[in-house]
Amino acid sequence: MVKKPPPPSRADARDTSPPLRGVEDKPSASLAPILSPHEVGERWLGEAETERGNPVKPTRSRRKSGTTERARALRWVANSAEGQLWQELKRRQLGGYHFTRQYPIGRYFADFCCRKKKLVVEIDGSQHADSVYDRRRDAFMRAQGYSILRFWSHDVLKHRTSVCETILAVIDGQLSESAAASDLRFVPASRTNSNTTSELKRTTP
User: Fold this and answer.
1) d(C-alpha 193, C-alpha 33), whole Å
2) pLDDT tens across 24-55, in order?
3) Contact partners, residue 179, CB within 8 Å, separation at least 6
4) pTM above 0.85, yes or no
5) 38, 70, 101, 114: which one has the fewest Cβ atoms less than 10 Å from its Cβ?
6) What is the predicted pLDDT for the residue at 196?
7) Could you read off the pLDDT of 5-20 as tens digits, one per residue?
């Protein structure tokens, strides 16, 4: 007696339903594992990288990148005398002269410097009153051929237009001798340095 083959199991049964219209009869790609929202966040943080290739540090802040730095810069401009004066000096707005902020001269840094006219502009607070450090600093810069013009921070905040006019007057040569007043102090470049420079120009063929 011939035994009949066992009926096919459900796993071996073929799908005899008609194919869906518009869908190609190709093997489906392997599906990605389903992740919880928490796992998705961890994976994104683990894979994301900055332009330099360093991993991004997780942060709870909802602000866009750079927002905090911009806010600090705006507060610096709005609240500090240095920030207020920089709005007048940058981009050649004052008489067409180019100023640089935090310009290095030796081991010191000038608040503002017009390199073409060898003029340093400093903004002083109360801590700079009769400062030995500032006198030593000024002496070094003067020896390098720079004249130094100092203003008090509260005068910059209250009389910014007058401060700008004074800077232009110094650049135009209207103030060439040492001057000290309640609202400013000016010291020209060292004469020794200037004379040495003139001698070099005369003797150079």
Assistant:
1) 75
2) 444 444 444 444 444 434 443 344 333 344 55
3) 185, 186
4) no
5) 38
6) 39
7) 665 555 444 555 555 4
191 phi/psi in degrees, rounded to 5? -65, -35
Give, for 153, the enclosing helix (H) or strand (E): helix 153-158
Superfamily of domain 79-203: VSR Endonuclease (3.40.960.10)
What does DSSP assign to residue 55? B
> Rounded to whole angstroms, what are the CA distances from 137 to 33, 36, 156?
66, 62, 22
Quick one: which H or E segment has residue 151?
Answer: strand 147-152
Domain boundaries, the chain: 79-203
Half-sphere exposure in the Cβ direction for 34 (13 Å, CA): 0
Residue 59's pLDDT band (cuts 50, 70, 90):
low
For the residues 156-177, what does the mean pLDDT come to? 95
Query: What is the DSSP code (8-state) at residue 62?
Result: -
Which amino acid is it at 54?
A: N
d(CA 176, CA 52): 50
Residue that the structure tokens 């994976």 belong to: 43
Cβ pair 142, 148 in contact under 8 A: yes
Residue linked to tokens 């940058």: 90
Count, in order, helices (H) and strands (E) of the chain. Answer: 7, 6
